[in-house]
Amino acid sequence: MSAASLELSAVRVRSALLERFHTAGVLGLADVHTAEALGRMVRERDERVLLAAALTVRALRNGSVCLDLTTASDVALAEDEAVPAGGVATDPALGLEALEWPEPAGWLEACRESPLVAGADAPPAERPLRLAGTLLYLERYWQQEESVRTQLEARTQGSPPGVDDAALFRDLDRLFPPSAALHGEPDHQREAAESSARRRVTVLAGGPGTGKTTTVARLLALLNAQPGPAPRVALAAPTGKAAARLAEAVREAAARLPEQDRARLGALDASTVHRLLGWRPGSKSRFRHDAANPLPHDVVVVDEMSMVSLTLMARLLEAVRPDARLVLVGDPDQLSSVEAGAVLADITGTANASVVRLTHNWRFEGTIAQLADAVRTGDADRAVALLTSGATDVTLAPLDAGAGLGAGAPGLDELAQRLSASADDARRAAAAGDAAAALRAVEAHRLLCAHRRGPYGVNRWNLEVEQWLARTLPGYAADGEFYLGRPLLVTANDKDLDLWNGDTGVVTRTDAGLRAAFARAERPLLYPPARLDAVSTVHAMTVHKAQGSQFAAVTLVLPPPESPLLTRELLYTAVSRATTRVLLLGSEDAVRQAVSRPANRASGLRQRMG
Ligand SMILES: Nc1ncnc2c1ncn2[C@@H]1O[C@H](COP(=O)(O)OP(=O)(O)OP(=O)(O)O)[C@@H](O)[C@H]1O
Questions:
Q1: Of 138, 407, 472, 477, which is the most exposed, with the fewest CB atoms less than 10 Å away?
Q2: What cellular-component terms does GO give this entry (predicted)?
Q3: Sheet containing 578-585: which strands, arranged edge to edge?
Q4: How far apart are CA 581 and CA 560, in angstroms?
């Protein structure tokens, strides 16, 4: 008997209901085991409660902070592509359609009565689960949500920071002069800057090119120009890559400021949020800086907030001094964090005075911006019209799942040509020892997938591209595991090397030997390959991992319309990674399906803050 079926038989003895949900492919073994372990703690025998607990654990894996018991059956397959070992029945009678879900009112009642579940008003940490209305939480996540909500409220409703009004108005007029390009629209950049001076929390939300970084540089100049000592400023982002981009972009924007502001701003650097908070070895979620030992900074700016999970947000708010100014920057329409939570989308979804949305696009005039906008606003007809308009910067081409590179299909041919050009340029630059050029070459084009596994997944495409390049570029990847120009993806955080899950790099030659180079604002980080613990080759990556990065050209492999991963946020995030060219490989139906399906992450934050 295999290990999986042994484990399954152990499950079978205990809960037939959980086993049914496992066989149908809804629950993984880990979900079942966690729920049963919880059940044993208090001798809970009601299978419906155990099912609710297992589904709550599963929901977390898929990014939801909690489970809404009234809609649990609708979202059974949402977002997840993981097929649990031994799960997913081939017999339709055992499949998803045939599952019998508990009747919601009785299910809620059973949970309410269970010794496993605390009520919304119960003191903290009494029981492992908590039911707030129809939302069931693991206690830890309920507490984190509560902590984020109360801390944000305390900061937005507490006494405002002191401001010299005369200086503020003078500098607002100076730094945000009226712009004819706004055609009479309100200047939200100025509004955001004023908010950052007058409030302890400002949320600066906007899509690519709406001037978020420009505004950050100017609002820092504004705060610096206030009378008194210059504020201590921290800039941070969730990944090393995003932090490097932030530092570079803020410096560029600062360079366009008047001399007096530039001088006062001084050197600006950015770090990852983990590094800012003081990562502690052996602890996944605790940091050196917390409420008892807060950060010394007067102004903390965090970019790419859509990637920040609920857990990290709770820690961040604990660590920022209550009297400091916090500026949260990001694009709430992008995919949410890999870990549970949709904090930025939740905060910007409430009628909160501290949220300022930038709407004017200053950068893109081409079709990419229009496509991103059509996707973001759920306009499938417009998205398809743009994709089929013959525009040179956006195209939709069909993809036959069985066809590979070199098959002679127009979309695949363009993809193959871009892959070859980027690999060849990277290899040449790496051989010449030009790390920065090699990094630029691997970022010239990126192949993105929604899935990890299967015919539309990263695993297949990575292999396919590697084989294609080896076939068509003589000598490609022939010089060992760390071959020159090999594109790298960091797959686990390594605080000692300042490398973070999702960072990308390239293998290059240096005077000291082969090095893995990773983009940073000043100059690339260079490490001997032997020092890298967790890297893989990245010819293709998931859209999730591409957040915080930008590429000249992006090709997205669209899964079939029925894929649960095909959401509006996924398509928007993929399209908005590109600056000059978007190629979608897939069907019009897949595009329509994506545009019309917003991701549905359960969290109670929006409701509780509303
Ligand atoms: N008020 C403005 N007037 C003129 N140009 C502007 C203004 N705001 C931004 N820009 C220009 O628009 C471009 C995009 O701005 P910026 O990089 O700040 O946007 P962003 O929202 O940070 O973009 P991304 O998220 O893609 O990095 C830059 O070239 C910037 O100089």
A1: 407
A2: exodeoxyribonuclease V complex
A3: 394-397, 578-585, 551-557, 445-449, 540-542
A4: 22
Q: Which CATH superfamily is domain 164-177+186-363 in?
A: P-loop containing nucleotide triphosphate hydrolases (3.40.50.300)
ipTM surpassing 0.95, yes or no?
A: yes
- pLDDT for 449 equals 96
CB–CB of 155/326 below 8 Å? Answer: yes
Q: Tokens representing 569?
A: 């946020």
Query: Which residue, by CA, sits nearest to atom 29 of ligand 1?
Result: 363
Per cent of the chain over pLDDT 70 is: 92
Determine the distance separating the centroid of ligand 1 and the alpha carbon of 344, expressed in angstroms. 20
Q: Which CATH class is domain 16-138?
A: mainly alpha
- List the residue whose alpha carbon is closest to atom 26 of ligand 1: 208
Task: Report whether residue 548 contacts ligand 1, using a CB cutoff of 6 Å.
Answer: no
Q: How far does residue 546's CA lie from ligand 1's centre (Å)?
A: 20
**Per-residue DSSP letters for 281-312?**
TT-SS-BS-STTS----SEEEE--GGG--HHH
Q: Inform me whether the pLDDT recorded for 513 exceeds 80.
A: yes
Please give the average per-residue pLDDT across 107-129, as a whole number: 93
**pLDDT tens for residues 543-568?**
988 988 889 999 999 999 988 889 99
C-alpha 230 to ligand 1 mean position (Å): 25
Question: What is the CB-side half-sphere exposure of residue 171 using CA atoms within 13 A?
Answer: 23
Encoding tokens for residue 555? 């090709």
**Angstrom distance (rounded) from CA 447 to CA 537:** 12
Give the residue among 523, 533, 451, 426 at the shortest CA–CA distance from 490. 533
By C-alpha distance, which of 223, 212, 219, 207 is closest to 249? 212
What does the alpha-carbon distance between residue 610 and residue 606 come to, in Å, rounded to a whole number?
A: 6
- Indicate which residue's Cα is closest to atom 28 of ligand 1: 363
Homologous superfamily (CATH) for 367-596: P-loop containing nucleotide triphosphate hydrolases (3.40.50.300)
Q: What does the longest C-alpha to C-alpha distance in the chain come to?
A: 79
CA of 248 to the centre of ligand 1 (A): 13
Does residue 128 line the site of ligand 1, with CB under 6 A? no
Q: Alpha-carbon distance 25 to 88, whole Å?
A: 4
What does the pLDDT read at residue 9?
A: 44
The DSSP bridge pattern shows strands 513-518 and 504-510 to be antiparallel
Report the C-alpha gap between 140 and 209 in whole angstroms. 37
Fold match between domain 164-177+186-363 and domain 367-596: yes
The residue extents of the domains of the chain are: 16-138, 164-177+186-363, 367-596
Tokens 């599952």 -> residue = 99
